[in-house]
Amino acid sequence: MATDPVLVADIGGTNARFALARINDGDVIVDNVQKQHAVDFGSIRDAAGAYLESVAVNPSAACFAVAGPVTDDSIKFTNSPWALDIAFVKRALKLERLVVVNDFEALAHGVSSLGKPGDFSLIKPGKGDPRGPTLVFGPGTGLGQALIVPLADGRERIIPTEGGHVAFAPRTPDEIELMRFIARDHSRVSAERILSGPGLVNIYRALCSIAGTALVPRQASEITEAATSRECPIAVKAVDMFCASLGACAGDAVLATGARGGVVLGGGILPKIEKTFRNSKFIDRFLDKGRMRDFVEDVPIDLIVRDSAALVGAAAFFKNT
Q1: Overall domain count for the chain
Q2: 146 with 77, same domain?
Q3: Cβ-proximal residues to 158 (8 Å cutoff; 6+ apart), any chain
Q4: What is the per-residue pLDDT across 167-202, written as a single tens digit (0 to 9) for each?
Q5: Are residues 85 and 135 in the same domain?
Q6: Residues 279 and 237 in one domain
Q7: Are residues 173 and 41 in the same domain?
């Protein structure tokens, strides 16, 4: 038996995706997915209102997954000019219930609802440790991270983190120069300054400066396109450095959290560059942990390739709370 529809949203720094979700015999079903560009709307309320008008449905409840920490009733996004006043949006959309959750916390809730063919792509096999946490981790407009912790009674506890804001740890001479380049503008260089859409732009700019090459301005999507077509050697090097550094950071996160249950990669960037990503040094750097290599050796890594995964996660979070 299906439940009444719930408005679900995945609100990032660049885009917001909206959909209607139902729970049918325990399964999460997401329909009518639409993407709204943040620059096209003055507020989240306007974007959500436009979506509801287009589908001609007035749900009584909603769950929004947002790119940033959820600490009070007024949320400022880490990488977006939008803000979210929960009480105001609830009234404006005439909702009886509005739940707001960190986007990677929602994604972690949705992992158990994924698993159909085409939802995941195996990046690294491994037997893992079912007693250990699973790390949900990945780059988009920011660098998200959450943990799925198995409990003794068979349930799971989801722990949202701000692990994307740990300090960047350069390993190679180019990465050291990259950190110095970014440190000109930022007193503290976090992993997210490197491992995100804006971070990829930072890498590209830094490599142009290091090489003494005139900068041809490119957005993150243009850098990945130029790398995939191999029309720009610096773009190729930037994406390679991005993937290698991401592997190092993911491995460090496993060491820090004990996430030997596995790593699930999310975010909007990796599915778009999957072939390049697979041919990168991601796994080499993930495993490059010196005397702690054995700790990460058997950790399996999967990539979420389902486009609506965060919306499934928002619906799963709503179901679970």
Answers
A1: 2
A2: no
A3: 105, 108, 109, 146, 147, 148, 149
A4: 999 999 999 999 999 999 999 999 999 999 999 999
A5: no
A6: yes
A7: no
Looking at the DSSP bridge assignments, the partners of residue 302 are: 122, 264
Task: Using DSSP bridges, classify how beta strands 61-66 and 6-11 pair: parallel, antiparallel or unpaired.
Answer: parallel
Helix axes 197-211, 233-257, angle to 10 degrees: 130
71 and 199 co-located in one domain: no
What distance in Å separates the CA atoms of residue 70 and residue 68, rounded to the nearest whole number?
6
In whole angstroms, give the CA distance from residue 115 to residue 48.
29
The pTM score is: 0.90
Which pLDDT does position 1 carry in this prediction? 45
Place of tokens 């850098």: 223
Q: Per DSSP, what are the bridge partners of residue 263?
A: 135, 301
pLDDT mean over 91-116: 90
| pLDDT for res 249 | 98
Domain limits at 316?
A: 6-110+308-320
pLDDT (mean) for 243-249 = 98
